[in-house]
Write a structure and sequence with these properties.
This protein is about 55% helix and about 10% strand. By secondary structure, the chain is an alpha/beta fold. The chain folds into 4 domains: about 70 residues, 434 Repressor (Amino-terminal Domain) (Orthogonal Bundle), CATH 1.10.260; about 130 residues; about 80 residues, no CATH class; about 90 residues, no CATH class. Strand 2 and strand 3 form a beta hairpin. It starts with 8 loop residues before the first helix and ends in a 7-residue tail after the last helix.
Amino acid sequence: MQKSPPIRPGLILKKNYLEPNNIAVSDLAKMLDITYNSVSSILSGKGSITPSIALKLSEIFRNTKPEFWINLQTAYDLWYAEGNRGTDEPFYQLMSFGGEAILKLIGASTPIGYEAKAVVLKEKSLYPDIMAIPKDPDSNNERIFIEFQAYAEEMIRHITASKVIMSCTQDQYKGSVLTAIIYTDQFYQDKALPLSIESTSGESAIHGRFKEIVLSNFTAENLIEIDPRLVILVPFTIPGNTPGNELAQKCYQWKSIALKAYPESLNRNVLNVLSLFILNRFKDLSIMEVRKMLNFDLSDTKAGEELINIGRQEGRQEGRQEGRQEGRQEGRQEGRQDILYTLLYNRFGRRLPVKKENLLNAGDDILNPLAHAIFDFKSLDDFVLWWSINAANKIKS
């Protein structure tokens, strides 16, 4: 039996502690007396919360203990050491930017006016469920708990019920609650035992009823009809043994629908989550194969197209002087270099160690791999390492 997959400790630190308290990464780095890059690595999942950092975090956030942070890190390390591909974290990301669509899927009475939050209960080390809380505390909207279930767990209804009760007790919440379990496969729902707690005298009873969704029982059309943003969950509607050629065509269709359904500013987030769900559904694929299937290209945004057009315009002007064909080629190349540099600069700012002229001197042997790898950089250190290995010695002088 698999263990429940944990949410990344850095994500909990960011969403439940840094953002609510308006603490910047640079400020936390100073408080912890470590580098900015070290904090960024923890938030991205590449770095770990060490015992010394756990002690300092408990001093900064006084309602936590060092054991709390160590337990988060240990649960995360053990799960991923076993080679598991969890879905809780990408589902949390999806709830953060597409939560309204998920609430429509589970039949919430009012799918707007909510914000997602990872549930962490003080009584236990980690509960990686998703909770949707009304933004307006004075509204009559129900509090919503969602369990995204991508593996077999007989006690999932019991576990989910206990978490909901503990969370409401912890917050002293007495209002209405909607609890939903979203299974990725019918098999996982079939394995779940029914929930019923009755007293021997018959005077009282607790009957657990959940809104339950089984994604494999939907078609892509069903989900998209509910809300086009649900296309990100469509990978779970087709068999895990779908042939590669057929899957590649479907990936292209999913990507096209997803990029139209969400704002352009969310393109990267959308494709990242879609990639992770595809990886979970089709476990024999590698991340590079998924990127290729999605044609995960950096020029998909309107801003990127504009930069390409600028490059082409410059190329045409140069072409009048040095030859039309050569100018167009240079224009396309410069437009692409502009895109890559702009995206890198927007992510890393003044800390970016590569100057624009370095990219202008780069050839396709660097630009092509960089275009595919750029979204895999979780931190500036990742990019610096990639650049030192793949590009530093290849740049034309």
